[in-house]
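User: Quick one: structure for sequence A, then sequence B.

Assistant: Sequence A:
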Amino acid sequence: MIFVTGGAGFIGANFVVDWLTPGRAALDEPVLVIDSLTYAGNLANLAAVRGHCGLLFERRDICDGSAVLALLRRHRPRAVVHFAAESHVDRSILGPAEFVRTNIEGTFALLEAARAFVAELCGAERDAFRFLHVSTDEVYGSLSADDPPFSETTAYAPNSPYAASKAASDHLVRAYHHTYALPTLTTNCSNNYGPFQFPEKLIPLVVLHALEGKALPVYGDGQNVRDWLYVGDHCAAIRTVLERGRLGQTYNIGGRQELPNIAVVRAICVLLDELRPRRGGSYAQQITFVKDRPGHDRRYAIDCGKIERELGWLPTESFDSGLRKTIDWYLASADWIAQVRSGKYRDWIELQYGAHVASTAEGTAQVLARGEKGGSEQ
């Protein structure tokens, strides 16, 4: 078994679905999802594998280290894959406290629980255990147009409360490996996109605003550059690092698709013009430049040569192919979008379970099966 924290969120849910779907990850190993189901955690993201005998769920706050340690002792997983995090830069600017709590204190609590658990293991069980920490390229700061991409040896220079909180969590993971010999792995990824991404992020936000005839907001001059990574490629990379990564090492994961934000927005408009034509001309007519956000990093770029050389991973999606898949998914997922944007999915969770969710395979199957009345419509 493996534990996946934040497994009902965007990247975590994609990872869990990939892991449990026959023919996609080719793995036959149970997963215990640990998620506190905050605003971006949604059980409907796991609807594709609801009822799977290998899926278990615990509604827990990762800051509750004693509860996590109890789960570790009960289920004895061979790995913890740690996705759980507050992740939106704009939210971190408005309210940094929750980012410090979840990303720093939560990671610390997980590491302490894992350290105590590993100390109780012996032999092959101890040798097999892994703690994989999923992080971001934003810890490296900002690049100018001519700077080389971020490598694993790039000095940290976070420029937002979100980036700073993730940098701190990275340092904790590194310290626990070197001080306590905890068998850790760290991945730092570029901008993800794909199905189930919460509509506050650039690509789903632009898609939904375009379809509703709203302005398509672009910060500043639109020339802020990001490397774009399709979430399915990211999940494959994480599986690769979990299987073959060297202990204590960091692996950068990127899509090798550097684009300015305005180019991303225009590409979305072109695809929507094809797939859902707008009366009166192109969706590009809705593009609106807005005041830049504070401390907006100019450019991110990832050198993912290390994971390619050492582990043989390569991204399979181009930005064009990944974006088409993503837009197709949003166009086909109106019910999910409506539930997420209205917050009704959270009302349903509270109505069904209150503060607790079933923690056995049978209970989880029942939890997700009941999504036929609630979750599957999200």
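Sequence B:
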Amino acid sequence: MLRLRPYKKCDAQYIVSWLKDEVTFRKWCADRYASFSISAEEINKHYEACANLDDFYEMTAFDETGVVGHLIMRFTDPEKKIVRFGFVIVDDQKRGMGYGKEMLTLSIHYAFDILKAEKVTLGVFENNKPAYYCYKSVGFQERSLENPEYYHVLGEDWKCLELELAGQ
């Protein structure tokens, strides 16, 4: 049974181990970190910079085998009605086995039931089809943007798709 808990500094070692190549790394963080590869200390330093914010939540998914996934949630509006998911990742040895869907489902419930959000949003690169379909499977809908966002990654322009899920 998968569960969700607040992130601990020791979780960073797992996240780093799942980022085995630069394409995976960039699909995970876009341009939020300057260079591949990163250390557990760099992840913790990044999160420590957000420690005093009351709108930023780092979460870890785990089961009886240990840590299996991670994501952050943050409010994007002053009224604290819209939560954005980011840095979504699942253990590379467990991808395609339903862990991502289960982690997202738990996180969606947390956002709506605990944080009292009215909407959850996230961005996913168009070239990250497994993640895109995972997000769609838990109810996220693609939002059409007049000016889509592009990131220049590894010599290519990657289109970022905007997805959202409204509360029930």
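The chain has a mean pLDDT of 94. Residues 99-114 form the longest helix (16 residues).

User: Thanks, that's what I needed.
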